[in-house]
Amino acid sequence: MSLTMPAPHGAAAQHVVDARRFRDAMALLAAPVTVVTTVDTDGRRRGFTASSVTSVSAEPPLLLVGVTRGASCHQPLLAAGEFVVNVLGDHHGDLARRFAASGVDRFAGGEFEEWPACGLPYLPDAAVALRCTTAGVVAAGDHDLLLGTPAGIRGHGSSGALVWYQRAFHTPVQTSQDGTAAVQAA
After folding, report:
1. 151, 83 contact by CB (below 8 A)
2. Are strands 31-32 and 61-68 parallel, antiparallel or unpaired?
3. What whole-number distance in Å separates Cα of residue 120 and Cα of residue 113?
4. 3-state SS of 85-118?
5. pLDDT (tens digit, 9 = 90+) per residue, 29-88?
6. Other C-beta atoms within 10 Å of 106: how many?
7. First vs last Cα of the chain: how many Å apart?
8. Quick check: 184 pLDDT over 80?
9. Burial 31-43 (b: 16+ CB within 10 A, else e)
């Protein structure tokens, strides 16, 4: 399934904010940090850091991953038809930076193992890893939104979360009884 988002028109087109202001506003939206992995058609492991990941539906289970069309992983990810979303813990800041970098061997750290039966790379100490099959792709602006149906889940969920907020990695601090909370830089 492939869909395309319509361009704004009429009054809506006249009220579109510029890209810089939009990015500045979105920097105030805390997001989970994940590493999305797959294997391309030549058997090479591929992956990238993604903060544009969210659940879409519980029945049936469905999640969404946003991937920039210009990313080196874009075409291999679409062609693979399956991928793993590794939700990172508070101790994965360096790994997230490596998978966000260009021109490096993102898998050089040796942290990843192969998911049994399918061989997709997954992070055994991720808060959770979700193995997905591609259910659809929606074109949206300069991104494609990959819809994934979880086919397997691994993880322990025992580490704190890693989030992207104000263009930096942070670790949320649990809220106290009086409702106060803080965010720590990672």
Report:
1. no
2. unpaired
3. 8
4. EEECECCCHHHHHHHHCCCCCCCCCCCCEECCCC
5. 788 999 999 999 999 999 999 989 999 999 999 999 999 999 999 999 999 999 999 999
6. 22
7. 38
8. no
9. ebbbbbbbbeeee
